[in-house]
Design a protein that fits this description.
By secondary structure, the chain is mainly beta. The chain has one domain: Porin. It contains 2 helices and 19 strands. A 14-stranded antiparallel barrel has the order 1-2-3-4-5-6-7-10-11-14-15-16-17-19. A hairpin with a 4-residue loop joins strand 16 and strand 17. The radius of gyration is 23 Å and the shape is elongated.
Length: 434
């Protein structure tokens, strides 16, 4: 391994440790895409995410918005996600058909912090270079080992961090263009009970991968006070490699040949996953000198995730969890009001549609449509430094996981469970120029 490669791996291992708290709960993110990359944007529920001229944090959705920086700028944001998930198991049975009872859990999700960092340096009057660090995707759930659905999932975790290098250029007074290249590193953890209720063991998969992505963006300002932005973040192709370890499986394999269960041995595993592309279209329209309307429509190409297929490098057959996710849209509208030279206020609403269908909803993705209600503000201490806060209430539709007779679950058994979820998100950011 070269010195530069070793340095890169050390940096991203350190980054993963630093942002390990950034794995958002499944109660917050539709699918597992994270959108808490800017306290400013969160204040309007992402309305104007690809068109706002407020600061450089909007470059996540449109890299052309690094041209918001007229001086060397730094923006640091953190979102504290406080979720709640109530799981009620109606029925559960093992692979052999025996009842597993209805033991449920109300603490399968926990609070998390999602950080984002941006730095912009104008090269000249028209061109800006930018660097950012984000957590684009995250998922976390830990049911414990005693709940009735343990053969479907005990722990699920996805962590993805991305370091982006961007260039943005003002073509003229009406048009700006931007592009970035991103280096992603992701980790996946999947754990569940294995065997049957008569002879249980535990299986745990840990895998990681790195990948390259990119983004493109354009900002069009046809007349003063009207900004239209379009941003695109590419698909990211990961080839995960890792290990599966089993505990207490000495009795699991005994007498279960009629179920065609594999010989459970510790081995290496691999899987290829394509994280979706995202298209964001936004409008910022000044209604008065103090009041601005923001609108956003965001499409996430979730259909790139058709299944999770774990390939065991042994005699074990593949483990499959079908997703069949559907491409979905996010819509938001918001208002920004300049109360004074020092204080700006924001509010917004959003509809965040889930890519999960009733047929394939699972204990790892108990996902439902979300509604956002947000408000926030920015206080400027002086011409160089400001602080921004935001609060978002996320309401999630009640859903049912019904895994009965699914071909994926031959070795998992059946599960029927109801989910009630919600989340509160508190964001804080500091923006400074120098």
């Amino acid at each position: 391994m070269t010195t530069s490669s070793q340095s890169r791996q050390v940096f991203f291992k350190a980054s993963l440790v630093a942002v390990s708290v950034a794995t958002a709960s499944i109660a917050h993110s539709a699918g597992f895409s994270l959108n808490d990359h800017s306290a400013t944007a969160s204040g309007t529920a992402l309305a104007g995410a690809a068109s706002s001229g407020a600061d450089i944090s909007f470059s996540y959705w449109n890299p052309a918005l690094f041209t918001n920086a007229t001086e060397t700028s730094f923006y640091g944001s953190a979102a504290y996600v406080s979720p709640s998930m109530e799981t009620t198991v109606n029925s559960a049975s093992g692979a052999r058909g025996g009842s597993l009872g209805t033991t449920s859990t109300d603490d399968s999700v926990s609070s998390a912090v999602i950080p984002s960092l941006y730095f912009a340096k104008p090269i000249n009057d028209k061109t800006v270079a930018g660097i950012s660090l984000n957590a684009p995707y995250g998922l976390s759930g830990d049911y414990g080992e005693d709940w009735a659905g343990r053969f479907h999932a005990t722990e699920t975790s996805i962590e993805d961090i991305a370091l982006s290098f961007s260039l943005a250029h003002k073509v003229n007074n009406k048009v700006s263009l931007g592009a970035s290249v991103q280096y992603h590193q992701a980790e996946v953890v999947l754990a569940s009970a294995v065997g049957s209720s008569a002879a249980e063991g535990d299986g745990r998969i840990e895998a990681d991968a790195d990948a390259i992505g990119y983004s493109l963006g354009v900002l069009f300002e046809p007349v003063k006070g009207t900004r239209i932005g379009l941003g695109y973040r590419s698909e990211v192709d990961f080839d995960f490699e890792g290990d599966v370890t089993y505990t207490d499986v000495g009795t699991v394999n005994f007498g279960l040949t009629s179920l065609n269960l594999p010989n459970l041995v510790n081995t290496t595993v691999s899987d290829s996953l394509t994280f979706p592309d995202i298209i964001t279209l936004s409008l910022d329209q000044e209604l008065t000198k103090k009041l601005t309307l923001g609108l956003t429509a965001m499409r996430t190409g979730w259909s790139s995730l058709d299944e999770l297929r774990i390939d065991f490098d042994s005699t074990q057959s593949d483990s499959v969890l079908t997703f069949n996710f559907e491409d979905q849209w996010f819509y938001s509208a918001g208002l920004t009001y300049e109360h004074s030279d020092k204080l700006t206020l924001r509010t917004g609403i959003a509809m965040d549609n889930s890519p999960v269908t009733d047929e394939y909803r699972s204990a790892r993705t108990p996902d439902g449509d979300r509604k956002w209600l947000s408000f926030g503000g920015t206080y400027s201490f002086n011409d160089m430094t400001s602080a921004t806060f935001a609060y978002t209430r996320v309401s999630i539709d009640d859903v049912t996981v019904n895994r009965s007779g699914n071909s994926d679950d031959t070795s998992r058994g059946n599960l029927n469970a109801d989910y009630k979820t919600s989340a509160d998100v508190f964001s804080l950011a500091v923006n400074t120029t120098f």
